[in-house]
Amino acid sequence: MPRVVSCLLVHNGKLLILKRSTKVKTYKEYWGAVAGYIEPNEQPYETAVKEIGEEAGLGTKDITLIVQAEPVTINDVYDGVQYQWVIYPFIFRVTNDSKVHIDWEHSEYQWISPDEISQYQTVPYLKEIVRQHLQELR
According to the model, what pLDDT value does residue 14 have? Predict the structure, then answer.
């Protein structure tokens, strides 16, 4: 069962969401957070920091960990394929939002109010993570 991190990045009460590009394998053009597979030799926090660097261009000096939540197992169907994911949610505060630079995995990004997440087609469980952690996201 794949283990993945989902990293919510916040700055001045705004949440960073990224639109997945057409070049990724799953959830093409869905909105999501910085995310990635946890490699067998990695700890979830290590993966989170690595993925934030790769997907948002932010280093350890640009972020501060706010929450490392308990992992959640979810089931989903995408393009007729059944998936089961173990998601490790994280929330990080970003010190400078102008440093964000996305890679090929995403086609665009936006800073939104966490309350606006319901208006977007998102990857599985993202809306639930946002709702559960509204206090920490403000």
Answer: 96
Sign of CA dihedral 70, 71, 73, 76: positive
Q: Using CA atoms, how far apart are residues 14 and 93, in angstroms rounded to an integer?
A: 10
Distance CA 60, CA 39 (A): 20
pLDDT score, position 56: 97
pTM of the shown model: 0.93
- Could you state, in order of their start, the residue ranges of all structural domains in the chain? 3-137
DSSP 3-state assignment of 25?
coil
**88: how many CB neighbours lie within 10 A of its CB?**
22
Give the percent of the chain with pLDDT over 70. Answer: 100
Strands (E), the chain: 3-11, 14-20, 31-32, 34-37, 63-68, 72-78, 81-94, 106-112
The CATH architecture one would assign to domain 3-137 is Alpha-Beta Complex (3.90)
